[in-house]
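Bench notes, bay 3.
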Amino acid sequence: VVLAARGQNRGKTTASLGLTDAIVGRGMKAGFIKPVGQRYQVVEGTRADEDAVLMKAVFDLPDGLDDMSPVTLPRHFTTDYIMGRVGEDLETEVTDAATRVAAGKDLLLIEGTGHAGVGAVVGLSNARVAALLEAPVAIVSEGGVGRPIDEIVLNHALFERHGVRVLGALVNKVDVDSHPPLPEVLRRGLAQHKTDLLGFIPVS
């Protein structure tokens, strides 16, 4: 399952932590991969996205960081890619890593980077990655009404264009204390665009 978003800092990693905890709590085995990383650390000589480093540490995941974070984008990488100076087959690196991490797992959680089109500059948009891995998508958004629904619909369209099934949306930072009807408003608003509200995370 791919967790994508309508932008950065919308709650994908929070959702990844919660879903992985739920999976592990049910006695199942979960794998995690961040196919394209923009913010990375170097851990024991391996360049890995910071979210992959976090997930590995929190859940003591057995997979190597090089598989959990197969493609990272250091400074000038996008320019080098466009100018033909990158020799690696990035699609193969992602699919091979995902296959290794998924082996023996009940669920592979794939965390995207930003909105559906992020990564297109190197041929690995979130929509393209989801299509490559034949994985359905849940779109993560922040709270509100108009803007989240507008942007969820926009992202939904790009995933559909790539033949990816959208499971629905997960909305973060929903202020149910101040606006108790908000979850129902979101549910109905998204339903008008044939998108299910999978759940929401209240403002803490």
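Next record in the batch:
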Amino acid sequence: FNVIGPMPALAAGNSVVVVDTATRQKVAEVAVGEEPADVAFSPDGRRAFVSNRRSDSVSVIEVATRRIERSLAVGDEPHGVLTNRSGSLLFVLNTASENVSVIATETWAELRRLPASRSPWSLAMTTDGQRIAVTNSLARAGRFRSAPISEMTVLDAEKGTVVGRSA
């Protein structure tokens, strides 16, 4: 079983590595866009999606061949990346532009950009696969001498829409 993942030392080298998890040995290195930040796999395991912060793109890797299938232009400084359970939608967090690109994986077209809170950073799916939580790296300033406000944007995983925010 092989895993593709970015490593801090490789972000500057613009690549991800393939590791044999049984032996913990590197078996390959795949060149991607500039400063890879996050990796997600399609539900069937055939593709890996790598967000590239400096090139404002997502590299789509065919796992079996370890080759770049395509590069998708997304918003400013993409970080978190995740597919929904069906694999029909790819969600990409654009940290600098504070939005989420929703991409149809059948056509590779960006369907929409959803607003997110300050500096969206990571994505997590609920156990039932219905919702995706968007976390942030920075909180919003609160009133003087009060705690900052941390928000979480909640997305509908199948519709690719915002369903709420929670503080």
